[in-house]
Amino acid sequence: MSERAKRRAVVVAATPTPNGDLHIGHMAGPYLAGDVYSRYLAADGRDVIYTTVTDDSQTYVTTTAHRLGVPPGELCATATEQIGRTISAMGLSMRGLPPVDERYRAAVREFFTRLHAADRLRPRTVRLPYAEESGRYLYDGLMTGACPECLAASSGGVCEGCGHPNNAGELLAPRSVLEPGSPVTTREATILVLPMEEYRERLTAYFAERLPRWRPHAAQLVRELLARPLPEIPVTVPGEWGVEAPFPETPGQILYPWVEAMPAVMYATWWSAAQEGAAPAEADALWRAETGTELVYFHGFDNVYHWGLLDLVLLMAHGDRYVLPEANISNEFYDLEGEKFSTSRDHLIRSADLLAEVPRDLVRFYLALTAPEYQRTNFQTAALTEVTARRLTGPWQRLAEALDTLVPAGAATPLPTTAEGRARAAGVVARFRLGYELEAFSLGRSAELVAVTVERLATAAGPARAGADPHAAGDLLLQVRALLACAAPLLVDTAAKAAAAGVELALNAPQPEKITPFTLPRLPGAERAGTHRTEVAA
Length: 538
Prior knowledge:
Elements: H1 3-6, E1 9-13, H2 24-43, E2 48-51, H3 59-68, H4 72-89, H5 102-117, E3 122-131, E4 136-137, E5 143-146, E6 153-155, E7 157-158, E8 165-166, E9 172-176, E10 184-195, H6 200-210, H7 216-226, E11 232-234, E12 236-237, E13 254-255, H8 261-275, E14 294-300, H9 304-316, E15 327-331, E16 334-336, E17 339-340, H10 351-357, H11 360-369, E18 377-379, H12 381-406, E19 415-416, H13 419-436, H14 443-466, H15 472-487, H16 492-500, E20 514-515
Parallel strand pairs: 1-2, 1-14, 14-15, 16-18
Antiparallel strand pairs: 3-4, 3-10, 5-6, 5-9, 7-8, 10-11, 12-13, 16-17, 19-20
Helix pairs in contact: 3-4, 5-8, 11-12, 11-14, 12-14, 13-14, 13-15, 14-15
């Protein structure tokens, strides 16, 4: 067993804001990708925890609750339940969503109390946007304006378009979201910050080693940010919704919502381990440097600054206490019928709604095939039906029927395989590994390889059925088994049927000289997908 194979892996999907359910744009991004990578590691014999936790403190909870006319806590509870059901419906290999309770908040406060005790935090008197009518300081989703970097419309905190941060009063022409007509001025406030510039040397060394694994757009943003003075990370803000800041210098303030992510997912890792009866005593134990944990993040481009730099510095500020992420896999935006997903305009398809109409394996395959990995891509309802039928279910059913003819029902006598057949099956696995490993991880290429391999094997099944070669059936079955094992991270229900029938799906299993006959589970069709309507509010 290699040293890497002995390491536990912790895979983290960006923490979802509980201001609504997950739509398919979310799912085609970090959530499906993190699940596929986690399932690949598990199939390779790795100990892996795939986790996330709702980001309850985000300002987008309060703005959405205000728009809907409900208390923020009620919105959090409702949305968290919806998100949990969607995670289960999509077949994500998470243990569930951890409760955001007092134990969670204690873990968050302890993370920052430790930094405070080590004198890592600095008091700063800054001028913050201030809504005069309500007397509310504005930050993140509480304000809109123009990005000082690219001049596009932006919320506070970070620009969704170019990815650059805009702290404190940097947003141009700020307006209040909750009181659009309120005059916005600036007022002084003393907050605690973590100076990112103090970690430049360590950041430079880190990215020199790991940035080659990043996707080009995200890597470009990191280089842009490193080429200029690095911002100071707000650790506290004068706000009303969030975790109370436990510092005497900032009475009445809360922890800045974006800094919660690191202790939050540490807690989520601990909670996930607890569901398996294997939780250590301390919430951050599985992230300690001595564990050698392989840590991987999956998130969208608009979170590159937060997950790629801000959260990294939060780990570094604890000295050598924690492991650092091996890679950040980021995605671009996923459009719906040519337009950006919009919850406020109801221009979306919720994952749960799509899964109620279309079999899960087909949804996972199509979202993977069209995933926005390197550029924006587009979901089209009609294309889901046409593409899955033509590229997946059609050739899959042809292959299954050919195998039924080639190997009589109920046959149990192991079939011989050849050295060439074993080499071909091993080659299938090796090819899939290229798209599953971190160096070039790609949902799209993996889904494409599933389609190409199914078509090739369906075509090869004809000559094998008609020929007199006694090894043809065994060699074909060996490759089909390799296909099932390699497609399993995507086609979870089909893989489960095959495994229940006794088909070996471990990716590190040897290619045998004899193989026991099996039938290929059928894929369901997606006939109802074409009837799905997307409603766009006027």
